[in-house]
Amino acid sequence: MKLTRHCSHLKNHNFLRKQRTFCASTDSQFVASLTEIVRGNQSWRVAFNNSFISQTLKPHHVEKVLVQTLDDSRLALRFFNFLGLHKNFNHSTTSFCILIHALVQSSHYWPASSLLQTLLLRGLNPEGLFESFLDSYRRCNVSTTTGFDLLIQTYVQNRREADGLLIVKLMMDCGLLPQIRTLSGVLNGLIRIRQFHKVLHLFDEIVNSGLRPDVYVYTAVIQALCELKDFTRAREVIQQMESSGCDLSVVTYNVFIRGLCKNQRVWEAIENKNLLGNKGLRADVGTYCTLIFGLCKVEEFEVGEEIMNEMIEFGFVPSEAAVSSLVDGLRKKGKIENAFDLVNKVKKFGVAPSLFVYNALINYLCKDGKFDEAESLFHDMGHKGLFPNDVTYSVLIDSFCKRGKLDVALLFLGKMTEAGIKATFYPYSSLISGHCKLGKLSAAKSLFDEMIANGLKPNVVIYTSLISGYCKEGDLHMAFQLYHEMTGKGISPSTYTFTTLISGLCRANRMAEAIKLFGEMTEWNVVPNEVTYNVLIEGHCMEGNSVRGFELLDEMVEKGLVPDSYTYRPLISGLCSMGRVSEAREFMNDLQGEHYKLNEMCLSALLHGYCKEGRLDEALDACREMLGRGMAMDLVCYSVLIYGILRQQDRRSIIDLLKKMHDQGLKPDNVLYTTMIDANAKAGNLKMAFGLWDIMVSEGCLPNVVTYTALINGLCKIGLVDKAELLCREMLANNLVPNQNTYGCFLDYLTSEGNMEKAEQLHDVLLEGFLTNTVTYNILIRGFCKLGRIQEAAEVLDNMIDRGISPDCISYSTIFYEYCRRGDLQEAIKLWESMLSRGVNPDTVAYNFLIYGCCVSGELSKAFELRDDMMRRGIKPNRVTFNSLIHGTCLMSSVLPTAN
Q1: CB 66 within 8 A of CB 99
Q2: Nearest 5°: phi and psi at 595?
Q3: pTM for the structure as a whole
Q4: Cβ proximity of 325 and 292 under 8 Å
Q5: For 255, left (φ over 0), alpha (ψ -120 to 50), or beta?
Q6: Of 341, 313, 315, 348, which is closest to residue 327 (Cα–Cα)?
Q7: For 786, what's the count of Cα atoms within 13 Å in the CB-facing half-sphere?
Q8: How far is CA 596 from the centre of its chain?
Q9: pLDDT in tens, 533-588
Q10: What is d(CA 144, CA 47) in angstroms, rounded to the nearest whole number?
Q11: Whole-angstrom distance between the N-terminal and C-terminal Cα of the chain?
């Protein structure tokens, strides 16, 4: 009944008659009828909507239909897909295998491959799948085994190399041979998973099976042997390949060459490259690049350059990787010029090293001082399609900062921002450090604030740079403010941070605080280094506490730190400053006896101690002794000796020392020549001064403003003003501008001669040129006081203050001395109080002048009050002070009896 109702909806009455036949027919008739439907013009959708067909249809029916449509594999595929897509039919593995064989036989590889991919998704066992393939192959009686090849290739493509190899073995066991192309793919797959021994085993089976390997099979085998480092057998396989008559390829030899290079047998690799011509082959880009990589690996960069040049001569364009490897290798070996030349050579081919290598080369060029080349590389990058990154900019910014080109560095920071590259803390660190080193702390602090505003967190390095800058400027308050800000943010100070602060405190003579901070290092688990100890030792020695300095020396040695010349120099200087020069020399002798290496700094400190005490002979003896021990003298050592000799005005000794300097290849610098000229000029020995001038010029050491001024001063002192003026004109002709000191020489001469009218005229000229200073005003004041024109001297002082030039202690003491000499103590005290109110601190001479004035005026109690005030200010009274007080006391003693 159900069947009748269902069939009543069908319009095809012929099909109804066939349905009754199906019910009674055999299975083969059902398959035949299905085949007729598949091959006929009837709608498959309509036919297969019949419930009888849909209920009866089983996978083995489909298999038989597919076998019967082998002659039309496309039709078979359509039927297969129709059942799967529209009827949700679950095909058997055999159906897949039959259809794959049919499609492959018809050269429809793509749909066959697609079916295989779908089949593999079922997770079938490879052996079971092979059995289905083999049964289908025999059942269909197809003429090709390509279906098996496709199965193997699909396994390999899906990274199932072991399964592919299994199918190969199963085929061979059944007397079926895969195609050489398929076997080549399996071999390469096995190489990919580093199963090199399986490659060799399969190769032996290929040869034994009678198959003739092609160049691809040989190449894979040679690669496996190279990976196993069996180069002897690799050569045998190459000979076997060459004698087999198969087509040769340079790729095979490149594989062998790469294997040799990889194992640092680069010279054998080069020999194989050279033999390619005998085999009718020519080295290609791969050959050359492989050799370059190999040569770089063994650091034979010069040979690498030769190979690169040969490659270019033959018209090959080197790869970016090969160029990068060679350029980077040359850079690491310090052959910067070669690396730079190579970059320029290959850029005409449009080849450039990688961005990493470019950055590394730019960095190395900067470190090597080749800044123009570094900037040239930077500008070339854009033409090569390489865009500078934050590392590129950071390297260049750091280079500019270290050279003091802060404006250019800031310009590059702007370029970096314009390029859309976010600056990291590295360029900011370089900029802040650079500004701090040049004392531009305001700009450094602005960059610091900008960095924080941009969301970057400063680290200990940046904070320490700022702290160091403020310490060098003496602004310890700001330095410690930054230190506390840093530690408050949880940033731990480094050894350099503590060392910088301790150094600043030592220079400010705040040793108690320096010692306290040194102790705090342990609380932060920060270990002091040699520099920390050196700084603290120098601080104690400068304070006169050499004992503590030597205690710290012992402490640092106990901690395993190694003292150096920077440790010993302050200890030697400290002993010398305390008048213990002999002990300093003994200390140096002990150090040298223990084979400690001392440099010229230590010797110069000892020589300075001797010369300071006027013990020149002992200084020269120490020189001879130290030279005999292999210690060299530098320009500073000779300068110290020359300064000592100048104090004794020993002309012959200076000439002898200058000769020794020349013999040692040293020449006095501008400062030393100027010092010698100045000392002789002040001593009135102008002949010697001009002789030194001539030597200085003959050695190419050009005199500067200070040198000219020294000679002009000497000429003015002995009244040779005309010659002094000639020298001043010569100075102007040499594009040297006289300064306040130069004009001060002429001003001093005029005032000493009492020619105040011309002196004032000259001073007015200096005023117009903004060349007046405290010294020029003091010269005028002294001139008027010398002539007793004290009122005019006071007017000069007032004019000086009105013009914004700060008077010093000499300005005031010159005038109130004249008041005291005249007995006008009231005006002297009035001027004294004016000086104190302006914040000018009196010195010993100023106190002595006023104490003398009080004593001669009978104001002995005031004199002693000044003595007490003097001592409270930390100024020690000298012999003149006590002589004045004794003289005043004696005067009072003689007056009192007379009055009685």
Answers
A1: yes
A2: 65, 30
A3: 0.58
A4: yes
A5: alpha
A6: 341
A7: 14
A8: 33
A9: 999 999 999 888 989 999 999 999 999 999 888 888 898 888 888 888 888 888 88
A10: 35
A11: 170
